[in-house]
Structure formats: C-alpha cells, structure tokens
C-alpha cells in the first residue's frame, strides 16, 4: 500500500521522486513486524503505524507521540520548551474525576519541571472530538494559552477548562490563564486527514527551525519526510 501511494504521489508531482526513492530504498532494511527503536519508553510506534505516514490515513496517538519524541530528542535537554504526550489529557481527566484539585500520588516529569521553574513553554497536541488534532501553546511566563486549530473550529471548552484546572492546582493560583490567538503560523487544512501532520510540522518549525512549514501543496512531502525521519531511527 505504501509503495502504491508513493507511486501515485510521484506521478502527480514528479518533484517528489527523489524522496519517494529514498522511502523505497529504506524498505529493504525496515523490519515490518516490530516497534521503532530509539524512542522514549512511553512511545510504541509499530512499523505498521510508521508505514501509515505513507498514506492519507489519519495520524493516531502513537504516530503523534513518535513525532513529538523525535523533535524533543533533537531540541536537546537545555530547551526551555516541552511537548506533552498527547495522552496526558486522559491523565488529567482521570485525576479530575478523583479529586477537586490536581494532587497525584506521583508527579509527572512535566509537573516537576514546572515546579522547578525549568520550563517556559508547554506545547500540548490535543485531540478534540475524538478525531481532530489541535495544538495548545501554554506560556508559563505570560500566563496565556494559545489554541491552534487547522480547521478553525470552536474552542474545546471542556479540555481547556481541564488544562486550566491542572495549571491552577500546580501553580497554586486562583487565576485562569488568558486564552489568546496563536502568535505562530497556523496552517489551514483543506482535507480530513492532515491535522496531525500539521501539528508536527508546527512543532518542528518552532522548536527545530525546520522549514518550510506545512501547506496544502506540501501535504504529501511532509508525510514522506516524517516517514524518513522516523524510519532513520532503525539506522541510529
């Protein structure tokens, strides 16, 4: 299926032939019944999910988390930015259902980093409506939350309230963060499946200064590049 998708993309856009050839070359050394090595213990990207980058499939949570981990590894430990695992929202839901304030038995790495004053910006890939990836930028210095949505839908009030609850409990504050418009480029998707790639592209462009940013014309190019980035973990 991946080979057929690559053939179609190359036929429709001959400039992709070099990237497509690189993917096909990688097929020779990629094991197809395993998980991608070199990612954090919290990330389990199967080779089947890796191949799904070479398609028009929607990105699942492991694909998002793998892309996030790839970015974080290259941003380095000295970065004052963090990106949350996209499943962190479920941790917050569970915590909220059990307590009026956020008081886990064991604080997460991001909780500890915020307590220690080691982070200024927290980026949060947020799944809304069960099928659409959006992005939060939490500015701990300015006390703001920016919401980026490639479909320009209404803000997810329940999830934003949950994040506000977490931050207020963690920072021992009674004040909500201000909700603001994004101060970073936020591409608009024209299809039903590019939201996840857009989130990864925004994060890579800001934290790693990778360019150009996703655009509808570059949709296939970005999917191929993410496949190549993550498949290279087998070579490292």
Automatic annotation (TrEMBL):
GO terms for biological process: proteolysis. Keywords: Hydrolase, Protease. SUPFAM superfamilies: Cysteine proteinases. InterPro entries: Papain-like_cys_pep_sf, Peptidase_C48_C. One of its GO terms (molecular function) is cysteine-type peptidase activity. Residues 43-206 form the Ubiquitin-like protease family profile domain. It holds the Pfam family Peptidase_C48. Belongs to the peptidase C48 family. This is Ubiquitin-like protease family profile domain-containing protein.
């Amino acid at each position: 299926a991946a080979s057929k998708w690559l053939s179609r993309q190359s036929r429709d856009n001959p400039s992709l032939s070099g990237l497509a050839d690189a993917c096909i070359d990688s097929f020779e050394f990629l094991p197809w019944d395993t998980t991608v090595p070199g990612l954090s213990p919290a990330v389990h990207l199967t080779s089947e999910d890796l191949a799904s980058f070479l398609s028009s499939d929607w990105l699942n949570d492991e694909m998002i988390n793998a892309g996030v981990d790839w970015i974080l590894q290259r941003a380095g430990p000295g970065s004052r930015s963090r990106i949350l695992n996209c499943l962190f929202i479920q941790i917050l839901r569970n915590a909220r259902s059990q307590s009026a304030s956020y008081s886990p038995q064991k604080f997460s790495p991001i909780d500890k980093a915020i307590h220690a004053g080691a982070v200024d910006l927290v980026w949060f890939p947020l799944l809304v409506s069960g099928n659409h990836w959006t992005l939060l930028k939490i500015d701990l210095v300015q006390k703001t939350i920016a919401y980026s949505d490639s479909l320009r839908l209404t803000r997810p009030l329940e999830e934003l309230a949950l994040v506000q609850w977490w931050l207020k409990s963690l920072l021992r504050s009674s004040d909500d963060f201000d909700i603001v418009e994004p101060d970073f480029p936020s591409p608009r998707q024209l299809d039903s499946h590019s939201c996840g790639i857009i989130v990864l592209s925004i994060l890579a462009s800001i934290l790693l200064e990778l360019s150009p940013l996703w655009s509808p014309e570059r949709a296939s190019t970005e999917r191929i590049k993410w496949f190549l980035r993550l498949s290279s973990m087998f070579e490292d």
